[in-house]
Specification:
The protein folds into 2 domains: 66 residues, 2-Layer Sandwich (Phosphorylase Kinase, domain 1); 202 residues, Transferase(Phosphotransferase) domain 1 (Transferase(Phosphotransferase), domain 1, Orthogonal Bundle). 41% of the residues lie in helices and 16% in strands. The chain contains 9 helices and 10 strands. The mean pLDDT is 87.
């Protein structure tokens, strides 16, 4: 949770494991984050969103009691030496995240923008179902609004250009962050790696590979030497092509989450048909 407070694991009287997120009482921004998270999560229900079980609040103490995610974050699964997700598992996680965003952007009269989408904010339950978490800097658009302005900065590397430069927040900004995360999930490279400096970025690196050899950028753990190599190459190339469409520099030229979700589901169905999966 970083500078906003601390996170603990707890057990309720009925034996249920929970996550307790305690906000730093010394930081006004932390308490504001608590209020935002409560306001956003009070009105949302979706299988791919983190659920608030309860909240505790008084003048100098604020905490959220959330469902516990035993498999930790997508970040852990991408970068730990002890764990590895295959192509289908990574695709399933990113379909779950797309489903959550589609619900936030299109499932309400008032669209909700997460504003800080990254692998650390995607948590996995016991069945490896992904849940988008941490709505501390989320924004609710007013009726009829397409964007708002903010001074709250999100995480470097995942922010859309218009957010970083002008503080402009819209659903298209979440789409950009999603595109970056989709690239990261299949290349196992963070957008803030040292190799991405000057003109070179994660997006540029992936885009160049799409024109030449996609194998050069794909996480080597995904390809292996077994059968289906060319099938895997084809589908990872499709996924990374979609990531590029999500992370276009121009907000108007990005696809929306509804379309991205449909495309990813089609890729999954076709991938399973080609490798004989179920």
């Amino acid at each position: 949770m970083g500078s906003f407070g601390s996170v603990y694991k707890g057990t309720l009287l009925d034996g249920m494991s929970v996550t307790i997120k305690v906000f730093n009482s010394q930081l006004e921004r932390a308490f504001r984050s608590f209020e935002v998270e409560c306001e956003v999560m009070r009105n949302i229900r979706h299988r791919n969103l983190m659920k608030i079980i309860s909240s505790c609040t008084n003048l100098d103490f604020k905490a959220l009691v959330l469902e516990y995610m035993p498999n930790g974050s997508l970040e852990k699964w991408l970068y730990s030496h002890n764990y590895c997700l295959d192509i289908l598992q990574r695709l399933n996680v990113m379909i779950d995240v797309a489903s959550a965003l589609e619900y936030l952007h299109h499932g309400h009269t008032t669209p909700i923008i997460h504003c800080d989408l990254k692998p650390n904010n995607v948590l996995l339950d016991e069945d490896m179902v992904a849940h988008v978490a941490d709505f501390g800097i989320a924004k609710l658009l007013g009726e009829g609004d397409l964007m708002v302005q903010t001074k709250t900065l999100a995480t470097i590397g995942y922010m859309a250009p218009e957010y970083g430069m002008g503080g402009i927040v819209s659903t298209r900004g979440d789409v950009y962050s999603y595109g970056v995360m989709l690239m990261e999930t299949f290349t196992r490279k963070k957008p803030t790696e040292e190799m991405f400096a000057g003109e070179m970025s994660l997006k540029r690196w992936v885009n160049d590979a799409l024109d030449s050899s996609i194998i050069a950028v794909v996480d080597s753990n995904l390809m292996g030497r077994e059968e289906h190599f060319s099938v895997k190459e084809q589908y990872v190339s499709s996924i990374l092509g979609l990531a590029m469409e999500c992370s276009n520099d121009s907000p108007e030229e990005r696809i929306n989450m509804k379309e991205a979700l449909v495309r990813l589901k089609k890729i999954k169905v076709s991938f399973l048909a080609n490798i004989g999966g179920t």
